[in-house]
């Protein structure tokens, strides 16, 4: 039974660390997903009754909730691995998984969201897939909860070393699949720190390692929120082609024709019409069969429009000149502090013959007023707000494109110097 408990503990710990890290990589994106949940649940007023105002309130504070949840997930994952405050950790794990299981079930049952956001944009899961994942997790967490006294034993056995190795290998595989190895190094570092600290401070090792992990995740989350995700898993990541990802692969179909024998009245199915079929057969019906499932375009809603409704999407994606897009999904909430630096950079780029344009989901009158107040040397074009939030986690942010390819993206806290742009991008034209 102890081995089963240890397996459950390491399974839950590693998965919680992985889940927390991939969401901490993009806390703003996770807050958008929470907002989506809260908006959709609030619409179920007839089912949730008095809870409706609570979802509206939660929607307004989605970001602090997102940051709290991602850090909590990692802390609980580390804490259960190193046996820190096992009873409290087991209780919090149980409460958290009950909440998420109920959330994913309701989401799947009512068809609220298409993807759950459990693993951010790294591993998209449907609502039902997420629910089944939570059910499995619930079983392991329940084992941890009922066996918490045995987990509280302070001695580290051979099982810990073996399972730590297995857990590190599992995290290595997950990191390799993502081509992002930070989750592996964090997990392996946690295991290594725990075993090393135990040699010096046997009793305090669980506290020390959990505290260090908390500080590390706090800094990491602050960094990814203040700049851009350390690893961009979205379709608009630097190095990807927007044009290519707007093109999907259609289903491969096989056609069948149902014909009736004129003499016998028997209906037969053919993959192609027989020669002179009209002499012997009468057409009845046809059907299609999907031989190979196609691939939906990863980008289906990107468009660039003028205030008058003119579609400039193709113009932007086919341009052989570098184009700088200053993206503000909502100009009423755009940070004002970097506006002068953006203006200076835009002016310098325009003087060198490069195209600069603003891109927003705000209304034309708001865009005109904003540009005048801030002295923007460029006009604004228009795009869907969800698309802009997906493109860049910054308001405002800067994206460099050419021939439909994304060359670079920058947060307003990390705007590039003209010399850097010329050296790293423009000179390589």
Describe this structure in words.
There is one protein chain. By secondary structure, the chain is an alpha/beta fold. The protein folds into 3 domains: 2-226, no CATH class; 252-292, no CATH class; 313-428, 3-Layer(aba) Sandwich (Glutaredoxin). Helices cover 55% and strands 13% of the residues. It contains 18 helices and 8 strands. Strands 6-5-4-7-8 form a 5-stranded mixed β-sheet.
Write a brief structural summary.
With 429 residues, the protein is α/β, with parallel strands linked by helices. It has helices at 2-24, 27-42, 45-48, 52-60, 62-82, 86-110, 127-146, 148-151, 158-178, 182-200, 205-226, 242-245, 277-280, 313-318, 339-351, 364-374, 385-391, 418-424, and strands at residues 252-261, 267-270, 281-292, 323-328, 355-360, 380-382, 397-402, 405-411. It has 3 domains: 2-226, no CATH class; 252-292, no CATH class; 313-428, 3-Layer(aba) Sandwich (Glutaredoxin), CATH 3.40.30.10.
